[in-house]
Amino acid sequence: PLKWFLKEWREHLNLTQEQVADRMDTNKGQVAKLENGDQRMNDRWIAGFAHAFDIEPGRLLQHPDTPSADELLRRATPEQKRRVQAVIAALLNAS
To answer: pLDDT at position 95, please?
Structure first.
């Protein structure tokens, strides 16, 4: 099963369950169920949380302290960036 980092993102952004619920046009109880895994995520909830947190939906599967690929590339040296580009090119050519 997938691990959704909903509570971690909410706390990282200093939001209450009620604030998130307001942004998602739902209620605090629904947010709590989703955070606790008592209800399964679906496309509607994924889009709602992503919108509420102002992040890409895929980031919900990463802890907020995990840097995004964009952030890692911004920190990379020019040589590291060249190596990353070579790996991506090789992967794209392999398919």
So the answer is: 64
pLDDT digits (tens, 9 = 90+) for 11-25: 999 999 999 999 999
Q: What Rg, from alpha-carbon coordinates, does the chain have?
A: 17
Give the per-residue pLDDT at 39: 95
- The dihedrals phi and psi of 26, each to the nearest 5 degrees, come to -140, -160
Cα 83 to chain centroid distance, Å, stands at 26
How far apart (Å, rounded) are the C-alpha atoms in residues 83 and 17? 42
76 to 5, 56, 70, 88, 92: CA distances (angstroms)? 26, 22, 10, 15, 21
Residue type, 25: D
Q: What is the DSSP string of the chain?
A: -PPP-HHHHHHHTT--HHHHHHHHTS-HHHHHHHHHTSS---HHHHHHHHHHHTS-GGGGGS-TTSPPHHHHHHHS-HHHHHHHHHHHHHHHHH-
